[in-house]
């Protein structure tokens, strides 16, 4: 048995929610005759989502959504699954990356599943011949949804897309616990440095930033949060973290992680103030949050180790992890989010794909929330897998909660 197959099987045993959905799909075959195009991080958890969709009757064509996040042995094993075609490979060039995107689109998918919106962007700009065929899509990550909403606001999104990221089951678990744990584990295994006692700077206090700040604090770090939103900054302050500008944080920070989804979060004006030996990492989807262009142009010397680029600027060194890409997946030993977290996220993806398959033709172009019943279904399946029970409202309580005329 190949190493990729072993990885896929290992992940599968910790994904009971997706397993329950797979049983439903095997029975109902809801994707019979449909082609699904995917651009996701190709690793073991993703492979279980792909095989679940294929078990439901789909022909799946998949590539990566990041040049450094594919696990080649998993991609090879996935390509041997019935009705699955995999084009992803690790460390591909930009040209190879988009050639693989085109390979997926050459299959003429009727449903797209994206992590970062590259398939949808390509269809709308380079492959408009496919627009009449696509009935809808799903988007996995915050950055992709930001781009999709901008597209929709300009009236340029021509088919419906479910914002899988923007739902409680994704925010509370994938963003908070998944990002928090996986980013820290990748930093520690790549650098072998201590977190405890360090000044740990988190750029952005959204769900990902909150989770990362809490986990770093739990390991003994002195956490600093930088923000542009006054409400989130105040929330971080009241959660017990130091709040300051990036310019001020640059002077004292030991480890920096960006979680904003925006560009130039750590840039020229910050590099001059960094300590010798500062470690920089990015947890956003694209490698634009750290100004790598400036570093490459101005470094006197660049030293490359596994997963680490050291830029020598004058008399000090600045260490950038994973080429500024998603640190939890793009480092040599990065494994991405914990399996149990992705079980929930990929269960959402599977059910949202089913929702698009059933309803996409009736929906106008735009960004749609995950239906509440899907979010609750995933939560209930997870509770059942854990053997946990919760209360339900009585008739009296339902009436009371919906009434307006019952006073004190």
Automatic annotation (TrEMBL):
<protein>
    <recommendedName>
        <fullName>Adenosylhomocysteinase</fullName>
        <ecNumber>3.13.2.1</ecNumber>
    </recommendedName>
</protein>
<dbReference type="GO" id="GO:0006730">
    <property type="term" value="P:one-carbon metabolic process"/>
</dbReference>
<comment type="similarity">
    <text>Belongs to the adenosylhomocysteinase family.</text>
</comment>
<dbReference type="Pfam" id="PF00670">
    <property type="entry name" value="AdoHcyase_NAD"/>
</dbReference>
<dbReference type="InterPro" id="IPR042172">
    <property type="entry name" value="Adenosylhomocyst_ase-like_sf"/>
</dbReference>
<dbReference type="GO" id="GO:0004013">
    <property type="term" value="F:adenosylhomocysteinase activity"/>
</dbReference>
<dbReference type="Pfam" id="PF05221">
    <property type="entry name" value="AdoHcyase"/>
</dbReference>
<feature type="binding site">
    <location>
        <begin position="283"/>
        <end position="285"/>
    </location>
    <ligand>
        <name>NAD(+)</name>
    </ligand>
</feature>
<keyword id="KW-0520">NAD</keyword>
<keyword id="KW-0554">One-carbon metabolism</keyword>
<feature type="binding site">
    <location>
        <position position="328"/>
    </location>
    <ligand>
        <name>NAD(+)</name>
    </ligand>
</feature>
<dbReference type="InterPro" id="IPR036291">
    <property type="entry name" value="NAD(P)-bd_dom_sf"/>
</dbReference>
<feature type="domain" description="S-adenosyl-L-homocysteine hydrolase NAD binding">
    <location>
        <begin position="175"/>
        <end position="334"/>
    </location>
</feature>
<dbReference type="InterPro" id="IPR015878">
    <property type="entry name" value="Ado_hCys_hydrolase_NAD-bd"/>
</dbReference>
<dbReference type="GO" id="GO:0033353">
    <property type="term" value="P:S-adenosylmethionine cycle"/>
</dbReference>
<feature type="binding site">
    <location>
        <begin position="141"/>
        <end position="143"/>
    </location>
    <ligand>
        <name>NAD(+)</name>
    </ligand>
</feature>
<dbReference type="InterPro" id="IPR020082">
    <property type="entry name" value="S-Ado-L-homoCys_hydrolase_CS"/>
</dbReference>
<dbReference type="InterPro" id="IPR000043">
    <property type="entry name" value="Adenosylhomocysteinase-like"/>
</dbReference>
<feature type="binding site">
    <location>
        <position position="337"/>
    </location>
    <ligand>
        <name>NAD(+)</name>
    </ligand>
</feature>
<dbReference type="GO" id="GO:0005829">
    <property type="term" value="C:cytosol"/>
</dbReference>
<feature type="binding site">
    <location>
        <position position="227"/>
    </location>
    <ligand>
        <name>NAD(+)</name>
    </ligand>
</feature>
<feature type="binding site">
    <location>
        <begin position="206"/>
        <end position="211"/>
    </location>
    <ligand>
        <name>NAD(+)</name>
    </ligand>
</feature>
């Amino acid at each position: 048995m190949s190493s990729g197959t072993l990885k896929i099987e290992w992940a599968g045993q910790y994904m009971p929610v997706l397993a329950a959905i797979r049983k439903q799909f095997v029975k109902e075959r809801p994707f019979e005759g449909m082609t699904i195009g995917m651009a996701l991080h190709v690793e073991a958890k993703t492979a279980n989502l792909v095989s679940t969709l294929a078990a439901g009757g789909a022909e799946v064509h998949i590539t990566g959504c990041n040049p450094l996040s594919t696990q080649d042995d998993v991609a090879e094993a996935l390509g041997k699954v019935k009705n699955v075609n995999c084009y992803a490979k690790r460390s591909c060039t930009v040209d190879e990356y988009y050639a693989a995107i085109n390979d997926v689109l050459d299959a003429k998918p009727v449903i797209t599943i994206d992590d970062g919106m590259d398939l949808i962007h390509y269809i709308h700009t380079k492959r408009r011949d496919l627009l009449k065929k696509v009935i809808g899509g799903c988007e996995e990550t915050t950055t992709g949804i930001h781009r999709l909403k901008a597209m929709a606001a300009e009236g340029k999104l021509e088919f419906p897309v479910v914002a899988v990221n923007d739902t409680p089951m994704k925010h509370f678990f994938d963003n908070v616990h998944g990002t928090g744990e996986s980013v820290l584990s990748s930093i520690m295994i790549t650098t072998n440095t201590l977190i405890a006692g360090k000044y740990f700077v988190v750029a952005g206090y959204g769900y990902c930033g909150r989770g990362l700040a809490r986990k770093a604090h739990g390991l003994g770090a002195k956490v600093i949060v930088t923000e542009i939103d006054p409400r989130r900054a105040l929330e971080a302050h009241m959660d017990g973290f130091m709040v300051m500008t990036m310019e001020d944080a640059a002077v004292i920070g030991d480890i920096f992680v960006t979680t904003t989804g925006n560009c130039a979060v750590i840039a020229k004006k910050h590099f001059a103030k960094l300590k010798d030996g500062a470690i920089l990492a990015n947890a956003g989807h694209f490698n634009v949050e750290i100004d790598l262009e400036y570093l490459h142009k101005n470094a006197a010397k660049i030293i490359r180790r596994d997963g680490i680029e050291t830029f020598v600027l004058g008399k000090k060194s600045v260490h950038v992890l994973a080429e500024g890409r998603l640190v939890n997946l793009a480092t040599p030993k990065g494994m991405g989010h914990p399996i149990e977290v992705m079980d929930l996220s990929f269960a959402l993806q599977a059910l949202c794909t089913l929702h698009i398959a059933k309803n996409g033709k009736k929906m106008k172009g735009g960004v749609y929330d995950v239906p509440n019943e899907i979010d609750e279904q995933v939560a209930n399946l997870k509770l059942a897998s854990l053997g946990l029970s919760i209360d339900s409202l009585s008739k009296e309580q339902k009436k009371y909660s919906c009434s307006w005329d019952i006073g004190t």
